């Protein structure tokens, strides 16, 4: 690795500018449940707090019809209608309370650069990243040249807008409603609006759709958040220690860079005034209070209204505009992106595309076109042409779901998510005599009692694919060898490895680790990693999950079951649901392991590793951290306490 990568410099600035991350203190939780599958007559339904559980929870046969053989067809294309584009002077849009938001409008132009006089469908991007810089979420000239107006707006307290940052709060959402009304009445607008953007801008696009304004006729949401509490901010009840400082620094920093706003309106003091407003808001209203509160474990360490109001999944039933959702297997919103699709598909046109991406690559759709899947720009043009211009672009006929399969190393289409032919199967963890940190995996339930003990260390995971994922790829750029293996993280974990596969195994969907354990402390974290081990012994990471033991109670009515097996627990994360962990008393932690799609080839081995930390993915608030320090966790494997994982498996022939 070049030594320049170890020094702050342009690469770091570029990385921060590209981290289009949403809310580090953002939200959405209480009602943001996974789609429930076969929760009635379910042996798991009352198991969330049990301390005596048997191995037998087999259920129904595989659900749903076989997947359709769907094709993307020929890539859509059409010639530009206009030769140029032109930016109007940056303008200020006054909100109901007098606060002004900064906006730039880009219009089609003739060969001399003069704006075309006419009304156009409008593509809108509402951002927190200072649209005047043009670094993140800039207007797409290819769309404008094909007959669209484009508007980018800095939301309250960000970029060149007045006020203090609200981070998807109700105030922000009311501002979005006013912006939609503003756009509809402009002389360059024909009253039809399409929302476009990645990450922050994908989230605001979904929130715009939830305003139920019929003018919003299409949404193209790239790597958006669904449920911020569970997706990112407090995954498993843990603070995301990698994402929060990067994102808060990015938004705050971009809000104090000088911009043209105010100068075009003869307000030379505008920049100084807005900068002071931004800094005051950061110190007293949002950034510092929220981050400090998370660290000391204030009331918002639970899934409160503060988080729920900020979650698109809480309002998903209000979105009726056709919506295209782009996600990533290693994205920071890996969990929520398919849930957004699920929440939309039954009441509007919805499509889901998941690539092999972390957050930065997912924002651009890196590697496309591939395997018949067009570039994101091609898909987006077809989407807006279909639903804003009424053209027959074929976008409505795109496959409902397209996913990249690790191990298969290609994109595969399907009729739904998870795959309609998926069936959950249970793999039990077996301890090995004489090898306390190593065990095996088998579909057979254990018949003898084994146990494995681990020290509870809060720092494991820094050299792992997880560390790269939960810093949106930044740590992966600094320590690239860490992103390709789980072997280093496994050194402080209990490792359970299966026999070489006799035939290919295909995983598609979320996974649950049901881990029986006890601790010598008053609490502990339980982590579950899923990896593939090749002949060279390298454990290639697939996915992982983390869960605080005291917050592991789940609501069966909001959880996902597949043929009788729990594959996606929904934890309330409320003060009332918090359990008391008694030292040395066994408990079962139902760990939500985020969804993946992968093929484990014949000869390769499945690995499940269980540990007590995954930094920076999760770090306990200080009071909870103190209750788990200087402890040891014991993992049980036996007839009465069968630690196991439930995997959604698809016949290899279905791909």
From TrEMBL:
<keyword id="KW-0378">Hydrolase</keyword>
<feature type="region of interest" description="Disordered">
    <location>
        <begin position="30"/>
        <end position="67"/>
    </location>
</feature>
<feature type="domain" description="Xaa-Pro dipeptidyl-peptidase C-terminal">
    <location>
        <begin position="381"/>
        <end position="646"/>
    </location>
</feature>
<dbReference type="Pfam" id="PF02129">
    <property type="entry name" value="Peptidase_S15"/>
</dbReference>
<feature type="signal peptide">
    <location>
        <begin position="1"/>
        <end position="27"/>
    </location>
</feature>
<dbReference type="Pfam" id="PF08530">
    <property type="entry name" value="PepX_C"/>
</dbReference>
<keyword id="KW-0732">Signal</keyword>
<protein>
    <submittedName>
        <fullName>Peptidase S15</fullName>
    </submittedName>
</protein>
<dbReference type="InterPro" id="IPR005674">
    <property type="entry name" value="CocE/Ser_esterase"/>
</dbReference>
<feature type="compositionally biased region" description="Low complexity">
    <location>
        <begin position="33"/>
        <end position="42"/>
    </location>
</feature>
<dbReference type="InterPro" id="IPR029058">
    <property type="entry name" value="AB_hydrolase_fold"/>
</dbReference>
<dbReference type="InterPro" id="IPR008979">
    <property type="entry name" value="Galactose-bd-like_sf"/>
</dbReference>
<dbReference type="InterPro" id="IPR000383">
    <property type="entry name" value="Xaa-Pro-like_dom"/>
</dbReference>
<dbReference type="InterPro" id="IPR013736">
    <property type="entry name" value="Xaa-Pro_dipept_C"/>
</dbReference>
């Amino acid at each position: 690795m070049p030594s320049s990568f170890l020094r702050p410099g342009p690469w770091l600035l570029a990385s921060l500018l590209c981290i289009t991350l949403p809310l580090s203190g953002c939200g959405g939780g209480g009602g943001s449940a996974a789609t429930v599958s076969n929760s009635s007559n379910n042996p798991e339904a009352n198991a969330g707090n049990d301390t005596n559980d048997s191995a037998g929870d087999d259920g129904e046969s595989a659900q749903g019809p076989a997947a359709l053989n769907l094709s993307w067809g020929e890539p859509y294309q059409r010639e530009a209608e206009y030769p140029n584009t032109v930016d109007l002077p940056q303008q200020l849009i006054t909100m109901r309370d007098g606060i002004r938001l900064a906006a730039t409008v880009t219009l089609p132009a003739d060969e001399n650069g003069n704006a075309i006089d006419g009304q156009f469908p409008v593509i809108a991007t509402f951002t927190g990243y200072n649209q005047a810089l043009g670094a993140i979420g800039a207007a797409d000239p290819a769309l404008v040249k094909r007959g669209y107006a484009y508007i980018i707006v800095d939301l309250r307290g960000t970029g060149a807008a007045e006020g203090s940052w609200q981070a998807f709060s109700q105030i922000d959402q009311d501002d979005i409603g006013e912006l939609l009304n503003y756009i509809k009445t402009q002389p360059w607008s024909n009253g039809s609006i399409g929302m476009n953007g990645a990450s922050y801008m994908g989230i605001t696009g979904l929130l715009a759709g939830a305003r139920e304004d019929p003018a919003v006729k299409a949404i193209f949401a790239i790597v958006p958040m669904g449920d911020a509490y569970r997706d990112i901010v407090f995954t498993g009840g843990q603070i995301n220690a990698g994402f929060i400082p990067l994102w808060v620094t990015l938004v705050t920093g971009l809000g104090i860079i000088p911009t043209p706003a105010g100068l075009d309106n003869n307000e030379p003091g505008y920049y100084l005034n807005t900068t002071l407003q931004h800094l005051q808001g950061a110190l007293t209203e949002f950034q510092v209070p929220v981050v400090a509160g998370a660290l000391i474990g204030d009331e918002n360490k639970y899934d409160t209204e503060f988080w729920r109001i900020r979650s698109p999944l809480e309002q998903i039933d209000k979105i009726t505009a056709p919506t295209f959702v782009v996600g990533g297997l290693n994205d920071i919103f890996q969990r929520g992106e398919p849930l957004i699709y699920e929440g939309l598909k039954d009441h509007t046109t919805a499509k889901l595309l998941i690539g092999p991406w972390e957050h930065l690559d997912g924002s651009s759709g890196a590697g496309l076109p591939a395997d018949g899947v067009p570039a994101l720009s091609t898909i987006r043009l077809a989407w807006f042409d279909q639903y804003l211009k009424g053209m027959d672009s074929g976008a409505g006929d795109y496959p409902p779901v397209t996913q990249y399969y690790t191990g298969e190393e290609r994109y595969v289409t399907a009729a739904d998510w998870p795959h309609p032919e998926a069936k959950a199967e249970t793999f039990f963890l077996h301890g090995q005599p004489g090898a306390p940190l190593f065990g095996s995996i088998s579909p057979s339930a254990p018949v003898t009692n084994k146990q494995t003990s681990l020290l509870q260390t809060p720092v494991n995971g820094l050299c792992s694919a997880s560390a790269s994922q939960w810093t949106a790829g930044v740590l992966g750029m600094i320590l690239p060898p860490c992103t390709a293996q789980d072997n280093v993280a496994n050194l402080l974990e209990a490792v359970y490895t299966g026999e070489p596969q006799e035939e290919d195994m295909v995983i598609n969907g979320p996974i649950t680790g049901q881990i029986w354990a006890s601790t010598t402390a008053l609490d502990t974290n339980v982590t579950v990693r899923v990896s593939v081990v090749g002949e060279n012994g390298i454990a290639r990471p697939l996915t992982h999950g983390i869960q605080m033991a005291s917050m592991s109670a789940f609501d069966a009515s909001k959880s996902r079951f597949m043929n009788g097996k729990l594959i996606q627990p929904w934890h309330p994360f409320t003060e009332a649901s918090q359990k008391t962990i008694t030292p040395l008393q066994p408990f079962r932690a139902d760990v939500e392991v985020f969804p993946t799609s992968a093929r484990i080839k014949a000869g390769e081995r499945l690995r499940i590793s269980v540990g007590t930390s995954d930094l920076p993915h999760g770090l306990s608030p200080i009071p909870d951290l103190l209750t788990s320090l200087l402890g040891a966790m014991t993992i049980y494997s036996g007839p009465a306490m069968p630690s196991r994982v439930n995997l959604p498996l698809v016949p290899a022939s279905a791909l």
